[in-house]
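This part of the workshop introduces the protein records we will be handling. The structure tokens are whole numbers drawn from a learned vocabulary of backbone shapes. The record below serves as our worked example for the rest of this section.

===
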Amino acid sequence: MKLQEVYDFLDKVSPFELQEKWDNSGLIVGDMTREVSEIIVSLDIDDEMIGSTKEGALFVVHHPLIFGNLNQLDFAKYPSNLIEKMILKKQSLIAMHTNFDQTHLNKYVFEKVLGFKVDEQNAFLCTTKGTWKYKELLSLIKEKLNLQTLRVIGKKETIHSIALTTGAGASLMDEVKADCFLTGDIKYHDAMKAMSEKLMMVDIGHYESERFFAEIMLDELKGLDILAIIANSKNPFQTETGY
């Protein structure tokens, strides 16, 4: 199958034109006229993944390997070191990022993973209404996302509405119309703002909230007559205890 055929299929699944202006979804590495031997889906791409995958493979990932201008290819540094290895193996890379957040990922995590019902949804925010006790809600989040600990801002004993965006969504804070906002990568000053505005926030992790990308994408790729498999993307962070 040609890379162009896969690209066109993905564009129908989640149109690339939906991506944010700052994003770089779409073709990152490759030649649209080349044949694709197999498709590997993953949240991210790394050196081990490239080395263990056959020549001519296509990686479909969530996070673009290239953001902004790439002014030089220094093969000793990221991301050029990975790009060189893919080129030598005639491998390709397509990113499905903010377009896929809008069409698939946020709603999937909100409904299928956490078990909430979407009452309202805009491009990036899913919102539900109900009644949850503080400890009940945190226990649910930890269980469903397999989290050992949670960082919480603005504790509320009773929560009547919850909003979510996966990944790093604190910049959407002003759009949230809910008691509690679930997202990842919450910075210190975001937390200070939330506390001042009496918005409860729970940091559910960037990797932890987006790691479902591969299973969603694999299901979509069943519509193509080509082998597609999941590669387990590694969380770059480790939790150390006992020190």
